[in-house]
Amino acid sequence: MIRRFIPAVAAMALLAGCADEPDPSRPLGEAAPGVLRVLAGSELADLQPILDEAAKATGITVKLSFTGTIEGAEKVASDAVQAFDAVWFSSNRYLELVPEAQKHLGTATKVMSSPVVLGLPAAKVRELGWDSKRVGWAEIAAAAGAQKFTYGMTDPSASNSGFSALVGVAAALSGSGSALDAARINAVAPQLKQFFSAQTLSAGSSGWLSEAYQRRAGGGDPGAKVDGLINYESVLLSLNATLPEPLTLVYPSDGVVTADYPLTLLSSATLGSREEHQKLSDYLRTPDVQRKIMDATHRRPAVPQVQPDAKFAVKELVELPFPGSQSAVDGLIVTYFDQLRRPSRTLYVLDTSGSMEGDRIESLRQALVGLTGADESLTGKFNRFHGREQVTLLPFNSTAQPALKYEVPANDPRPILDQIRTTATSLNASGGTAIYSSLRGGYDVLRQQIDADPDRFTSIVLMTDGENTGSEGVDEFTAFHSGLPQNLKGIPIFPVLFGESAASEMDRVAKMSGGKVFDARSRSLDAAFKEIRGYQ
């Protein structure tokens, strides 16, 4: 293959990693004067204009580093927390259940709020008979199980909106609230499985989920159309401004889980950072700024002096109780992946050409091994290959190698995971880089699998470290892809940029399939593979 030099590019990694790294010239735990270093949920990117105004008004510059719900808890529970002065997630509920994270939390100031709700087209709401009455989660789950509507939702291990939806529907259906445990989860598993059978779109972030829905609604995405979304009220209201048919928001009568966005000081923060946190919090809660936040982000105000405006159809919300233990929440997430939602099918098209020799092929081996359960971290526990998942490895160099197919059983998955691990560690680098003929060959594998079992989340991960040297190029693949039947054309491709990948070609492949590019040029391949799990 041909190598060409491309400088490393630092890109915002929504929900899988920080957008900004700590300043290496400054000791951990020490903030620059006038700078508040905040570990935050990625959805807060829309607050940047408000924070720019805050910097002018208060002299405090907020440096946001983005991460996801579970990964954020892991960072706060580790030494990595020393690189920050505050955290700002949609909620502190999960953090407060993790003892090593909870001890680092200090003063928390609620800045705004947004419940997680269901959005459906008005015609679908009328068809369901929900336009003239409030419905509860049980009725919603029954309609979902009867395939009366479909929806998209984010991965609960990567994004708080999916996390909140999972906890909310489980708590409502079980009626147990904070007493939610394994026994009660098992008791309502049939209803939960009904509910999640209607989920036909997954994503690692609320933003990408909305973008994918918008593209499908407008015909710009080859994937099948989805009726609605479960997401933050604020995201759905923002999305409505871009849709030909706005979504009607359905607020379950038995309650919702609401994000309250507490700007939370860390206990290790310096005196200067504590003063800056207080000054910034006071500024953000002033009535004028609260109105600006409400207008710009569609989130509800946190102070009683500012009343929610007319766009919030239901003013008084019933708040569902949150489980009282980390084990209950973690168990619920594992059950969601292994038993409740539609299972996944993933084809990994993996570059093992000569340029991958050395550290690169070892990085690929370790990234795959990490998905077999070898990573025992909090994030690793949820990012492994799940029960019922079909995993196919298709290594390629000058040509595609034989496809290696596995199905992870829901019970006793270890023997199959060990087989995948053995295969991963035996990958070797040699030969050329026939990207597009190998990718095309992967569809032959998927066609057979889909014909035998169509009811799965299916995706392709394409990892290559350089330019194509095969006889077929991206133009030939584009022509091939355009002629595929809809059930194959709608499979998203997630290219991973690594080494000297041809970024423009990979972006083209992602867009034609409704996928997304993941950049591993300035971070580990392991981190990129974990982030992709949120979209599978």
Task: Give a verbal description of the structure.
- There is one protein chain.
- 40% of the residues lie in helices and 18% in strands.
- It is of the alpha/beta class and 536 residues long.
- The strands form three sheets. Strands 5, 6, 7, 8, 9, 10 and 12 form a seven-stranded mixed sheet that branches. A six-stranded mixed sheet has the order 15-14-13-16-17-18, sandwiched between helices.
- The model is unreliable at 1-29 (pLDDT under 50).
SSE layout and pairing:
Blueprint: E1 35-41, H1 48-58, E2 61-67, H2 69-76, E3 86-88, H3 99-102, E4 105-110, E5 112-121, H4 122-128, H5 137-145, E6 151-154, H6 160-174, H7 182-187, H8 189-196, E7 199-203, H9 206-217, E8 228-232, H10 233-240, E9 247-250, E10 258-259, E11 262-266, H11 271-284, H12 287-297, E12 300-301, H13 326-340, E13 344-351, H14 359-374, H15 378-383, E14 390-396, E15 404-407, H16 414-425, H17 435-452, E16 457-464, H18 474-482, H19 486-489, E17 493-497, H20 503-513, E18 518-519, H21 525-532
Parallel strand pairs: 1-2, 1-3, 6-7, 6-8, 13-14, 13-16, 16-17, 17-18
Antiparallel strand pairs: 3-11, 4-11, 5-8, 5-9, 5-10, 5-12, 14-15
Helix pairs in contact: 5-8, 6-13, 14-16, 14-21, 17-18
Radius of gyration: 23 Å
Tell me the β content. Answer: 15-25%
* End-to-end Cα distance: 30 Å
Q: Can you tell me the overall shape?
A: globular
Low-confidence stretches: 1-29
Average pLDDT score:
91
Can you summarize the main beta sheet?
Answer: 7 strands, mixed
Number of strands: 18
The helicity comes to: 25-40%
Query: Helix count?
Result: 21
Structural class: alpha/beta
